[in-house]
Amino acid sequence: MFAVITGDIVQSRQTAVEVWINALKDILNQYGSSPMDWEIYRGDSFQIITNPEHALNLSFILKSYLKSKDINVRMAIGIGEINYRTDKATESNGTAFVNSGTCFDDLKKQTLGVQTPWNQFNTILNIMLDLASITMDKWTAKTAEVVCFKFRNPSMNQKDIAESFDKKGQGNISEALKRGAYDELNQLLYYYQQSIHELC
Fold it and tell me: pLDDT truncated to tens, each residue of the chain (200 aa)?
């Protein structure tokens, strides 16, 4: 099975194109090659193909990275099969794309959702994501930067993280992770990964 993340930049017209498009390309390039694994299309929309167990972690990384640049994003994770794969992500097809697209179209005030073949899992996880988004959508750029770094380097302790940031002590890192609800999001991520591992 595969996961497809469909997203777009919120209020992209209020931000200079070169700001958000360069930030988006920078982070997507670190998780695949364009255009086979990811593409930006229809102006400010994008899709990236990944594996199901990594999809939520990648969504958290994308969201926190872009938020650290004062860029807001909406995303929908679709899990399913890819039965037609081309050298362009947006021209491939299968239930992973259908689920991602359907979930994205159904997003209203939500900024992160998921659609899988398992309805009960969808219901539970989407409630969790709605609650998590209350915090994530209010991240400051500085908080998002620290949260993103931690999600990308989960084994690093706060002291090591502090050394990676100029003028930030361990106490600042601890406070940023607490404000960003990193521990709670990590618990959600663990639940998601364990569930996907069992369901797939």
Answer: 999 999 999 987 777 788 889 999 999 999 999 999 999 998 889 999 999 999 999 999 999 999 999 999 999 999 999 999 999 999 999 999 999 999 999 998 899 999 999 999 999 999 999 999 999 999 999 999 999 999 999 999 998 899 888 756 778 899 999 999 999 999 999 999 999 999 98
* Number of structural domains in the chain: 1
Reference 94, options 126, 42, 49; nearest CA is: 49
| Helical (H) or strand (E) element with 61 | helix 52-67
Q: In angstroms, rounded to a whole number, what is the distance separating the alpha carbons of residues 135 and 132?
A: 6
Between the alpha carbon of residue 119 and those of residues 4, 114, 123, 148, the distances in Å are 17, 10, 6, 30
Domain that holds residue 14: 2-199
What is the domain-level CATH number for residue 138? 3.30.70.270
